[in-house]
């Protein structure tokens, strides 16, 4: 899920060791077509604590040197290095485990019980499966990680609060009219 195309996969193979050397992980790679293609790389710190502008700039400079030699995108293109954001994509089993207890949207590469899209609270991982607690379902769903085409966290108050806490901030104080 980190990549969608063979070109994305080639770029990931070039970018992964560079990012790891900087204490970063590549979360996702996408080449977006257009008049001038855009190579979008989402990155995070290996510990999941979030990246800042300096981290993105360091990775951009390091990858530019590698891409200049390897030329993974033909012609002129824009390189965009960014954080995955608060409602981040989930692209590894470790991401699903790290964000246990938070709401996620998951899209499968096949139909299961007449649907491809699922939404619920992440309940961990087990034997290569993502566990998901969905509203109205008594049992926890076991979704094979290999079946997942796309997944991301859902922007909720709980996720915003966790993000603020991780960044050393405080959640907004409740005022009298908010009760």
Structure description:
The structure is a single chain. The protein has 179 residues and is of the alpha+beta class. The chain folds into two domains: 77 residues, RimP-like superfamily, N-terminal (GMP Synthetase, Chain A, domain 3); 74 residues, SH3 type barrels (Roll). 28% of the residues lie in helices and 33% in strands. The chain has four helices and eight strands, in the order H-E-E-H-E-H-E-E-E-E-E-H. The strands form two sheets. A five-stranded antiparallel sheet has the order 7-6-5-4-8. Strands 1-2-3 form a three-stranded mixed sheet, with helices on one face. This is Ribosome maturation factor RimP.
CATH topology of the largest domain: GMP Synthetase, Chain A, domain 3
Describe the largest sheet: 5 strands, antiparallel
Q: Sum up the overall morphology in one term.
A: globular
Count of all domains: 2
CATH architecture of the largest domain: 2-Layer Sandwich
Q: Write out the CATH superfamily name of the largest domain.
A: RimP-like superfamily, N-terminal
Number of strands: 8
What portion of residues is helical? 25-40%
How large is the count of helical segments? Answer: 4
Q: What portion of the residues fall into strands of 2 or more residues?
A: 25-35%
Kindly provide the radius of gyration, computed on alpha-carbon positions and rounded to a whole number of angstroms.
18 Å
**Text of the CATH class of the largest domain:** Alpha Beta
Poorly predicted runs: 171-179
Q: Report the average pLDDT across residues.
A: 92
